[in-house]
Amino acid sequence: xxxxxxGGWDFLGDWLWPGATAQGMNNNKDENLFFNNCYWIYNLxxxxxxxxxxxxxxxxxxxxxxxxxxxxxxxxxxxxxxxHNYSDNSMRSLVAALYGNIMPAELRPLVLKxxxxxxxxxxxxxxxxxxxxxxxxxKVLREERRDDxxxxxxxxTTYPGWGFMRDNGATTIWEMWEKDLPGHxxxxxxxxxxxxxxxxxxxxxxxxxxxxxxxxxxIRVPNIKPEQVSWAKTAFNSLAGNIKxxxxxxxxxxxxxxxxxxxxxxxxxxxxxxxxVIKVSSAVAKNIGEEKGxxxxxxxxxxxxxxx
Length: 308
What we know:
This protein is α+β, with helices and mostly antiparallel strands. It contains 9 helices and 10 strands.
């Protein structure tokens, strides 16, 4: 395992979660050792992927093995099987474990289910992580396509949350979730992690990981109820060109309009709703199957309209 190193500001773990200043953000706590090891394991796996792409196979294998060994040790030491949680049983520990993917594959769905319960039931729909843990949380939920859980947290107007800041006069993001603490900055870069979700979650524009530079794109109508968000319209200026996605749900009908730039292609995820026939504006949109409540279409560059 990675061991604690450096001075007082060198091994912090998560930072400024709700109530953190009152609880004491002691970087000598064992939960910080767990949190930072999960992040270290994530970095080892990321380094291995990079090494593979650039042809450094020896380094890739070494880092992958090191990540696997560390994950086994950290999981064995910190996992609580009854709760399907880790370390101090906090949301930040759950998220760190999922971010580092330290658990055996068969346990990941159980840990994800525990995270869902933590958000919806134990925290009553609120977020309970800080700056670093929040970035991990939103990355995990975006990759798991849990737009519903992200919406639940971002739409709260009571403490803690962005809506609470807004309703208490904030025009910029605070340093802490709390209001009016001494030394509290009211213009900070603390909790910016919903930003990417507006593009790849709400608008549904997601680069396929097996190709660089948005040459291949996924576009997906998000997993959100119409009474929560009924439409989104987005243009994203990618390296491959301007990608446009505009969807709306109205009177039981879903409509999606997209623009795919030249020399690229996309896979469109359109909701598969019982009893509804999907109409597509062009015959070049090829139906390639189904996946978790969606019908998939492969499309080349151009403009397309889908509706049911």
